[in-house]
């Protein structure tokens, strides 16, 4: 069973629908035992860092996520799910999970750059990884974000994208993979990456 | 590089697509789910469903349509038409739409924009505007006026001012529908779209007037639109999303590769 972490934010059902489509049993849940017993965990969604961290802490889900990561079972973060992995986000000056050293910054609003970035942008695979099996390099994925991660461990960066500046759009480390782009809204190429995650 | 989006718009009444759409192949031309799948397969970057159902009972049918579409296509889509309350928005989003598009409802009650943005995030709230060219006046300094109710009723507001106010209230994208250009197939309203795209810090979507692929090129390159809505030029099989994208790529416009 795949647990989709329920932290009362948007877009949880999109991921569930994509997993249904791929034929994988899944459950949207905030129950500690269910999450820890799951084969895999997905932390999806759009939202603000502060509200997301607040909702996680209220349910002690921050600790559950760290515990799940330490279990070594596959874990996937999407959009806000990549941002909260780091130590700190500029968005409302928010302390995050701190699983990885690094922070999250806002796109510089200059030269007419629209913030948030909304639309399809190229992801360049800068390292080989099983999550990219069968995915063209580069390929377009759907992004909706005003902030981007800046990992200190540069060897964890597997995907890069340019929007005003070049930023890290995907990371992988041990059992954890996270993407700034929405796999569940990126057409077939997104479904392919989701399917790859489900086979890890 | 962020690509320019092509967004087919489907008008839905009581669960059926209203325009007699002539797709080639085995598409049930009235079925929004089939049409969504057709566009998904042919490389549309996003879809818009416009619910022109009048009664509340029939809105439940629209929710079923949204839910069925969301289970089959995995690109973003928005739903507009008749959304007035936070609860209307919530139902559409929970059914699987990525965004809600509010138009006349936002003019009548601008706070719905900020309420929606607070509840679901700005990225979910698209402000759609119906705009008509009028003579410049004290109230309409740009010479572009906001209309509501299917372009029938003038509001007395300046379109440029409303776009700025909409973004301040929390709209994450702006759709600029030109009443003058709509249905002409003579091209998008380039001056209006460009003025708003230069003015607001969020993506701007051009709507109304597309008659051929060059019109999309013009609104992307000359007016700096981030996305363009198409309807009749692709619905009737005159052009395909693929052929438009091929043309745009040859013209140096960056578009999404479909895979």
Q: How would you concisely characterize the structure shown here?
A:
The complex is a heterodimer of chains A (200) and B (259). Chain A has 6 helices and 13 strands. Chain A has helices at 12-22, 32-37, 49-58, 61-71, 80-83, 187-199; strands spanning 2-5, 26-29, 40-43, 75-78, 86-89, 94-95, 100-106, 117-125, 139-145, 147-151, 157-163, 165-173, 176-179.
Q: Calculate the mean pLDDT score of chain B and round it.
A: 91
Strand arrangement within the widest β-sheet of chain A reads: 2-1-3-4-13-12-11-8-9
Q: Could you say which structural class the secondary elements and strand pairing of chain A correspond to? A: alpha/beta
* End-to-end separation of chain A: 14 Å
Ranges of chain A with pLDDT <50 over ≥5 residues?
Answer: none
- How much strand of chain A? 35-45%
Tell me which oligomeric state these chains represent.
Answer: heterodimer
Mean pLDDT score of chain A, rounded? 95
Task: Report the helical percentage of chain A.
Answer: 25-40%
Largest sheet of chain A: 9 strands, mixed
What's the number of extended β-strand segments of chain A? 13
Rg of Cα set of chain B: 17 Å
- As a percent range, the share of helical residues of chain B equals 25-40%
Question: What letter string, H or E per element, gives the SSE order of chain B?
Answer: EEHEHEHEHHEEEHEHEHEHH
Please count the beta strands of chain B (DSSP E, at least 2 residues each).
11
Q: Order of strands across the biggest sheet of chain B?
A: 1-3-4-5-6-9-10-11
Order of helices and strands of chain A: EHEHEHHEHEEEEEEEEEH
Task: Characterize the largest beta sheet of chain B: strand count, sense, and whether it forms a barrel.
Answer: 8 strands, parallel, barrel
* Span of the ends, CA to CA of chain B: 17 Å
User: How many alpha or pi helices of chain B?
Assistant: 10
């Amino acid at each position: 069973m795949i647990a989709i972490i329920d932290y009362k934010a948007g877009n949880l059902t999109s991921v569930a629908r994509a997993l249904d489509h791929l034929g994988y049993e899944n459950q949207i849940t905030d129950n500690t035992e269910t999450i820890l017993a799951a084969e895999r965990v997905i932390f999806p969604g759009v939202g603000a860092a502060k509200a997301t961290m607040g909702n996680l802490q209220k349910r002690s889900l921050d600790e559950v996520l760290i515990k799940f990561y330490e279990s070594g079972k596959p874990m996937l973060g999407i959009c806000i799910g990549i941002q909260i992995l780091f130590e700190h986000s500029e968005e409302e000056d928010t302390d995050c999970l701190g699983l990885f050293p690094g922070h999250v910054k806002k796109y510089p609003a200059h030269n007419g750059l629209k913030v948030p970035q909304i639309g399809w942008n190229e992801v360049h695979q800068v390292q080989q990884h099983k999550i990219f099996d069968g995915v063209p390099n580069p390929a377009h994925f759907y992004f909706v974000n005003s902030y981007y991660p800046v990992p200190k461990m540069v060897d964890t960066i597997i995907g890069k994208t340019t929007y005003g500046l070049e930023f890290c759009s995907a990371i992988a480390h041990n059992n954890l993979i996270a993407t700034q782009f929405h796999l569940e809204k990126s057409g077939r190429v997104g479904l392919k990456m989701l399917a790859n995650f489900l086979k890890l | 590089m962020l690509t320019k989006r092509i967004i087919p718009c489907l008008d839905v009444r009581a669960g059926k697509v209203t325009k007699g759409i002539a797709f080639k192949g085995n598409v049930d031309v009235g079925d929004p789910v089939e049409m969504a799948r057709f566009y998904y397969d042919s490389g549309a970057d996003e879809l818009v469903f416009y619910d022109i159902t009048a009664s509340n009972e029939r809105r439940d049918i629209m929710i079923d349509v949204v839910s069925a579409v969301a289970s089959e296509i995995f690109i973003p889509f928005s739903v507009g038409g008749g959304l007035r309350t936070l609860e209307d928005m919530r139902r559409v989003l929970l059914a699987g739409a990525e965004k809600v598009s509010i138009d006349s409802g936002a003019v009548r009650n601008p706070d719905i924009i900020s309420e929606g943005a607070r509840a679901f995030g700005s990225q979910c709230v698209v402000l759609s505007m119906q705009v008509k060219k009028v003579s410049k006046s004290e109230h309409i300094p740009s010479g572009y006026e906001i209309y509501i109710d299917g372009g029938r009723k003038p509001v007395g507001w300046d379109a440029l001012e409303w776009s700025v106010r909409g973004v301040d209230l929390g709209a994450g994208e702006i759709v600029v529908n030109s009443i003058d250009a709509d249905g002409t197939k003579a091209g998008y309203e380039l001056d209006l779209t460009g003025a708003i795209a230069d003015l607001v810090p969020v993506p701007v979507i051009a709507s109304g007037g597309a008659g051929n692929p060059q019109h999309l090129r013009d609104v992307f390159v000359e007016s700096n639109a981030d996305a363009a809505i198409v309807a009749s030029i692709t619905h009737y099989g005159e052009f395909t999303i693929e052929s438009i994208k091929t043309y745009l790529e040859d013209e140096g416009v960056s578009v999404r590769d479909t895979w």
